Amino acid sequence: MKQIHKEMFARSHKAGEQDTWLTSPELLKALGKFDLDPCCPAKMPWRTARKMIHQPKDGLAVEWRGRVWCNPPYSSPLPWVQKMAEHGDGVMLLSANIDTRYGQLALRSSDAVLFVQGRLLFHKLDGSLSKGKWLRNMLVAYGKDNVETLRALSQGTVSPGVVMVRKSLRKQAPK
Ligand SMILES: C[S@@+](CC[C@H](N)C(=O)[O-])C[C@H]1O[C@@H](n2cnc3c(N)ncnc32)[C@H](O)[C@@H]1O
């Protein structure tokens, strides 16, 4: 039994299999237009941003400009959160593992976090829906406008949930 578990773990953690979970077009539409997506597969069935980077180019090494969409490779999200924290304008889609180093950094550095209710659907490279929807997700906003995007999203049907906003950006309640 132990051996079977080992093999399943090794198989599911092969880079590529684990890394290419595509964001649904519905979610992208609800988030609005992006200038850059620094981590894409070579062939995407739909656009995620005006400029889309894929390997062998390294999305971590290019200059990030404008509003950035980042659904990073699941095998190594930390450097992408670090880069977004430095950049300060964009939205990230992350597993809601808030006890990890990347999760802690995302909570510390961002302006708002939307903890998604239920599970998001992802797509495979051919555009078909993936059966796996076991991950808990959070959307993380950097920059004031992206905070508003998450607020709106949290009230909608595509990705409802609870938004936590940095104190300095909270709306004052009417007196
Ligand atoms: C979770 S998928 C996200 C795909 C797409 N951006 C989306 O939102 O649907 C992450 C992608 O990043 C790619 N990737 C991994 N490392 C990269 C790097 N250093 N530079 C560019 N792309 C990379 C992987 O091949 C994978 O297709």
Overview of the structural elements:
The structure is a single chain. This protein is α/β, with parallel strands linked by helices. It has one domain: Rossmann fold. It contains five helices and seven strands, in the order ααβββαβαββαβ. The chain has helices at 2-12, 25-31, 78-87, 101-109, 144-155, and strands at residues 36-40, 51-54, 68-70, 90-95, 112-116, 137-142, 161-165. A five-stranded mixed sheet has the order 3-4-6-5-7, sandwiched between helices. The protein has a two-stranded parallel sheet with strand order 1-2. The chain is globular. It starts with a helix and ends in a 10-residue tail after the last strand. The model is unreliable at 1-15 (pLDDT under 50). The protein binds S-adenosylmethionine (SAM). S-adenosylmethionine (SAM) binds at residues 19-23, 37, 39-41, 48, 53-55, 58-60, 71, 73. Residues 19-23, 37, 39-41, 48, 53-55, 58-60, 71, 73 line the site of S-adenosylmethionine.
